[in-house]
Design a protein that fits this description.
Distance between the termini: 108 Å
CATH topology of the largest domain: Serine Threonine Protein Phosphatase 5, Tetratricopeptide repeat
Largest sheet: none
Number of strands: 0
Number of domains: 4
CATH superfamily of the largest domain: Tetratricopeptide repeat domain
Length: 745
């Protein structure tokens, strides 16, 4: 066993799989298996590569070996099932799917994945009685009557086809218990009862006791009554009825309206509980007319309106009940169920999306709530995308499956957990974005397995799970984001960046600018020197009106050019930013900051004239900008324009005095004098400042130096005036100054 050769083969296989070169991937993974024949990751990877290369028997053998090593892994049985199904061996596929379902049932919150596998089994082998029976029980527990009845019909037809008339009759009758008056079930039952008894005589091979699945089905009614849990809408209905019953004894509460409505509420609750819908509606309406407005009442009335096919009136009542999130969620779901049953998928989808939004926001963190909410503001057409209106039905079915299955809160929490981890490398994900594909359950199963592999450090297996998810939904962006996350964990930063950019570009093309920008920002956090990405992000922010954020990117991009010693490109970038700055929230401040950066570059390049020109622009925008005026003074000295420098100084000192900072006057003048000790104008202003504030000792020192400078340049009269000013201060050596003054005449 050569571990280095094994690792190299696994890397080569992953690279080939990433590029879709499946035959190369097969060869690489075969080398890995040759080095470590019992490595589950290598066998699983080989199975996937063979599957995609069309080498189905080889894929099946690899998956079987991996499953034998890890018999508790349901994903491998699922893949065995899909391989059998591709080979056209439906019964074997169904058995593998059933094995996967049994393993999923042993996991927390695995019921949804188990149900998916039962459906896979029925698809692969429609005559699989056990799969239909499991689905029937699953739909019963979820309160999904329509689907439960459909499974009853399928089971009854299977038993009838086998000649097992009594079993078929039993199942049709049970379907009518679930949905009294169901036309198809009633018609099938009537036909079976009218048929000649001899036509249903069991053939020799079917004689005797029913198969195990039928015996198990015979117990379903009792089991269902013991273990059945109410569905989403039914739970809310029970809670609403309980709340109304309690309100009857709380007549004084303003929340429940006047006391005269209590009798109507009591009557309505009683009628509603006994299934007398029309009479209950009248009683509820009477309570409303009396002024009673509790959300529970509106919710119950809405449900009854739906039973009477009065959807618009039901919608109005659910809106009144929406002050409580449970009623709002259940109301949208109930309307969605109604529209779905009526063959109106777009309207159903709108309601399911509204329900999903409530569940999603309830489980999201405050810091991601705003980004998640934006997802639900997109028009329905944007979610349907290329499929158009015909895509509404499968998407509505997908959301119905997610919302209607038992344990909604737990599933939301579980999904939000891994979505939030994924959102650390990009914009926050909403449940809608993750579920907005018809194959959502299968994709989510693969992504969940990916997360498990990542937590165990099994990055190659995680990457292969992502490929498995892509086979069901090639354009699912959350899956592509997960791939980038896996690549980053593998140390393949360049590949991760490429994937991120592709996802960001897709968001941009779809008009989701906030998500696109967030993805570009993720790239730049990983690789700050990606100039093209930063330029795309900047243009995107400008086009979407996020000017301040765009200006930050302009500054960052110019800084990158500066670090690369591309000074002209940096200045060009700053000039572009200046064109955008007037649209910012604080345009003048942005313009000043940008001009300062440009001026600094020219200062470093010893281009005094261009620097001075820029500082003059700053002075016009911000006359009190001390930094600009000080720099401009220095530049004027270097350009041999001391007159302009002094004029600039005088304006600056005025501004400082206006701001009430007298000490700053001294620090400016003292610094300038230290830099230009022979400048008479600066010494004069420093001395005058000391005199104006009574700082006699410092004034004497400054005046003495001023007099010397004046004498050195032959300005005798100015020197005499300075000496007189010194004498007026009565220094200890005043006689010496008087003697000097007499000497000067």
């Amino acid at each position: 066993m050569n571990r280095a050769a094994f690792a190299e083969a696994m890397r080569a296989g992953a690279d080939a799989a990433w590029e879709g070169k499946w035959e190369q991937a097969v060869a690489a993974y075969q080398r890995a298996v040759a080095e470590m024949p019992n490595d589950v990751n290598a066998l699983t990877a080989l199975g996937l590569a063979c599957f995609n290369a069309g080498r189905l028997e080889s894929a099946l053998e690899a998956y079987r070996q991996a499953s034998a090593l890890t018999p508790e892994n349901p994903v491998l049985f699922e893949r065995i099932g899909s391989t059998y199904e591709r080979l056209g061996r439906g019964e074997a596929a169904a058995e593998a799917y059933m094995a996967a379902a049994r393993l999923y049932l042993q996991q927390p919150q695995g019921i949804g994945l188990a149900a998916e596998r039962w459906r896979d089994a029925v698809r692969a082998h429609p005559g699989h009685i056990q799969a239909h029976a499991q689905l029937l029980q699953h739909y019963q527990k979820a309160g999904r009557v329509k689907e439960a009845v459909n499974e009853c019909m399928a089971l009854a037809r299977l038993y009838a086809a086998r000649g097992q008339r009594q079993a078929a009759l039993q199942i049709y009758r049970y379907a009518l218990q679930l949905a009294p008056g169901h036309p198809e079930a009633q018609a099938a039952l009537d036909a079976l009862l009218r048929a000649d008894e001899a036509a249903f005589t069991p053939p020799p091979e079917a004689a005797g006791e029913l198969p195990a699945a039928a015996v198990e089905f015979a117990d379903i009614p009792g089991v269902a009554e013991t273990h059945k849990r109410p569905g989403l809408v039914e739970r809310a209905r029970r809670r609403a009825l309980a709340a109304l019953a309690e309100s009857i004894f709380d007549e004084g509460s303003a929340a429940h309206g006047p006391a005269r409505s209590a009798g109507s509420i009591a009557q309505a609750v009683d009628l509603h509980t006994r299934g007398q819908s029309a009479e209950a509606i009248a009683a509820y309406e009477k309570a409303l007319a009396a002024g009673s407005q509790p959300p529970a009442l509106h919710f119950c009335l809405g449900l009854l309106y739906l039973e009477q096919m009065r959807a618009d009136e039901a919608r109005a009542q659910f809106e009144q009940a929406s002050t409580e999130s449970e009623y709002s969620l259940s109301g949208h779901f109930a309307l969605g169920e109604h529209y779905r049953a009526q063959g109106r998928p777009q309207e159903a989808l709108e309601q399911f999306i509204a329900a999903l939004r409530i569940a999603d926001q309830a489980g999201s963190r405050p810091e991601t709530a705003a980004g998640i909410a934006r997802d639900y503001e997109r028009p329905l057409a944007a979610w349907l995308g290329a499929t158009g209106p015909e895509g509404a039905a499968p998407l509505a079915d997908s959301l119905y499956e997610f919302l209607g299955t038992e344990g909604l809160q737990e599933r939301v929490a579980q999904l939000r957990s891994w979505m939030d981890r994924l959102s650390a490398h990009g914009p926050p994900l909403s449940l809608l974005e993750v579920l907005a594909i018809p194959q959502a359950a299968r994709v989510l199963a693969a992504l969940g397995q990916t997360q498990l592999y990542l937590e165990r450090g099994m990055t190659y297996s995680a990457l292969e799970e992502c490929f498995h998810a892509l086979s069901d939904a090639p354009s699912h962006l959350p899956t592509h984001r997960m791939i980038a996350h896996v690549l980053l964990e593998m140390g393949r930063t360049e590949d991760a960046v490429t994937k991120w950019v592709a996802v960001a570009d897709t968001y941009r093309v779809r008009g989701e600018t906030a998500k696109a920008a967030a993805m570009y920002e993720s790239v730049l956090r990983a690789t700050p020197m990606e100039m093209g990405v930063r330029a795309r992000l900047t243009a995107l922010l400008v086009s979407s009106g996020r000017i301040d954020e765009a200006l930050e990117q302009y500054m960052a991009l110019a800084n990158v050019y500066y670090q690369m010693a591309q000074m002209e490109r940096a200045c060009e970038t700053y000039e572009e930013a200046l064109q955008v700055a007037p649209r910012a929230q604080q345009p003048r401040q942005w313009q000043v900051n940008i001009l300062h950066e440009m001026a600094d570059i020219h200062m470093q390049r010893v281009d005094w004239k261009r620097a001075a020109t820029i500082y003059e622009r700053i002075r016009q925008l911000a006359p009190d900008d001390e930094r600009a005026r000080l720099a401009l003074m220095q530049l004027y000295y270097r350009l041999n324009r001391p007159d302009l420098a002094v004029a600039e100084l005088d304006e600056l000192l005025k501004a400082v005095r206006r701001s009430g900072r007298p000490e700053r006057v001294f620090s400016i003048l003292e610094q300038l004098v230290a830099e230009h000790p022979d400048d008479i104008a600066l010494q004069t202003r420093l001395a005058q400042a000391y005199l104006n504030t009574g700082k006699v000792e410092k004034a004497l020192v400054s005046l003495d130096r001023l007099g010397d400078l004046q004498m050195e340049v032959g300005r005798v009269e100015d020197a005499k005036a300075t000496i007189r000013a010194i004498i007026a201060l009565n220094p200890p050596n005043a006689d010496q100054y008087r003697a000097l003054l007499e000497q000067l005449g």
